[in-house]
Structure prediction request, 168 residues.
Amino acid sequence: MRLIHVLVACFLFSFTGLAQQPTETPPQDINSIGAYSFSGLKYPLGVNGERREYYQIQYELSDNLRVQLDAFYNKFGTRNRLRTALLTKVNLSKKWYVFAGPEIEYDMNRELGGDGVRLGLDLGMGYEVNEQLFLEAGFNQNLNGSRVGPYGTMGDSDFFTVRSRFKF
Prediction:
């Protein structure tokens, strides 16, 4: 029954991704310079002033190896969170890849240290359906025992993720 609830929630929340507004981007010739690429998006403001932004810088070291820096900013209610990850991605085939790297999440409403900072290790596998659609499944291991949970929650902070990303 829990699996059915999770699948229904994923289906319903996928429509939110279709309503996203991309951030302003510079002209195309600046957006991808050599082996570098930059992308980002900002979701519409929520009813209560919620704000979500995502930025990504990627550098190709070779045809099968990339380094990626992700930054997520979330504001919900009175909470502000900043999460960054430095991932290494290795292509297993033309469509399949694995990724791993450290992640840090900082709760800006708390003092630095203690439960305000969560250090994690992000591991997973992804599939590129086409140039616009990516599917990923991963596991994030809490490294410092922080009570700061994933994506703005509190409590147990080891978690599995299933993500999809659609580029316009």
Notes: The longest strand covers residues 79-91. Strands lie at 21-22, 36-42, 51-60, 65-76, 79-91, 96-107, 117-128, 133-142, 159-166. Residues 11-18, 24-33 have pLDDT under 50 and may be disordered.
